[in-house]
Amino acid sequence: MTHNSRYDSLPVSLEEVLAGRDCRARRQGELLSRYRGLDPSGKDLSLLSLSLNIPGEYKRFPLADRSFHEELRILRLSLEAEKIPLIHEESSETRAGYTGFIVAGGSPERLKKLAENIEDTHSLGRLFDIDVLKPDGSKLSRLEGKARPCLICGNPGFICARSRAHSPEELIRRVIGLMEQFTRERLGDIVSSAALRALLGEAAVTPKPGLVDRANSGAHSDMDFFSFIDSAAALLPWFRHCALEGYKSAGPSGGGMDPETLFRSLRPGGKTAELLMRRAAGTNTHRGLLFSLGILSAAYGRLYRECEAPAAVSLLDFAAKMTVSLGDDFSAPNPAPSHGELVYAKSGVTGIRGEAAAGFPTVRNWGLPVLRRLLAEGFGMNDAGLGTLLHLMAHTEDTNIIHRAGGSGLEAVRAETAAFLAGNPGMEEMKETAAGMDRDFSARNISPGGAADLLAVSIFLHVLDIHAPA
Fold first, then answer.
1. Reduced to 3 states, what is the DSSP secondary structure of residue 418?
2. Does the predicted TM-score (pTM) go above 0.70?
3. Among residues 147, 170, 190, which one ends one of the domains?
4. Closest to 397 in 3D by CA, of 353, 342, 458
5. How many domains does one find in the chain?
């Protein structure tokens, strides 16, 4: 049996499994004794004991790690949703399996109902084993007395287990299939959620010089804030697709696809996504982000197969590997060249293609660090986003500005913004200056769209960090 892994998955002996059960029972007793009678209301606290139902001799491997982390995550969320206090949590992951303990308020019956709902409705619920122990150490039976179904046929599981109705290999294939399906679903949810927050977060930052925001359309007479909403909704399936293609590319069916081949495989679908975006928004609202976030979504999917929380620097490095030959686009014949290609033909500025092929250095050195710093200082996303945008405007080779105002216009915008930031302005001064720049840029038809795209990339990477498992 093989598993995609950062370490070798080793079979566990019966003696190790039994020793693990003894250790779990001993720890249950210790926790019940420690927390007995400590509830502020005078009632005893309840103990939830978590594990995974994994048949066979392999109990721990990367897919199982993710499944156990999800069991802990969804139980925490369910307790919080029901306003049940979580008093204590601990867990262990060994070759013999997974063990988690949560001490919580509420009656054992209430917690058992919550646990059963998770086991019966979550896509991995059949693999979750959530026992609820009374203060005396006894386990609550399922409240409605209904046996859990067999993984294979849906009949009562204990009957199939007793009769050995299904082979170990059949059970293991089913378990791995459930884990793989959940991992792909979770990946798609993480990436599409982060992309949505990035697209709408960038659009919502107000005031922005010459750009669409919640106050006005800036230098863009063909779009408004609602255009961005329509465009974002149309592009969400594209980002999910890119993430899943990245994930598949590293697996058996992907044959260990190299990064450049992965990038090339996305390009036909990108043209379709652009068509759907234009139909939804009526204009070229997010073409740059369709490209940039599509690459990074695929990079996240590729790295997610091996790591639950790929670091931003790893994503940027992999994006560079995917697009290392992107400069060839400039020499290929194109009957309908983009603004970026026209700018390159005149000035040699590579724009977003060069940014991607270099691993998004402006995001790496300015966008993400500034965004993280301002958020850490207590600013909300609007103000942190505005401060980040100004820093990006001072350092981005923005082909949008070159297209509208020429190379001299770009240098003027960069120099003036850098000089302003050199004075270490406060946030209110930034807002006031940005509003003035917005009036000026809108009148002169200047739009720092390249910097705005890199702001969205910075938000995307920041949001992905939030999804790192606890």
1. helix
2. yes
3. 147
4. 353
5. 2
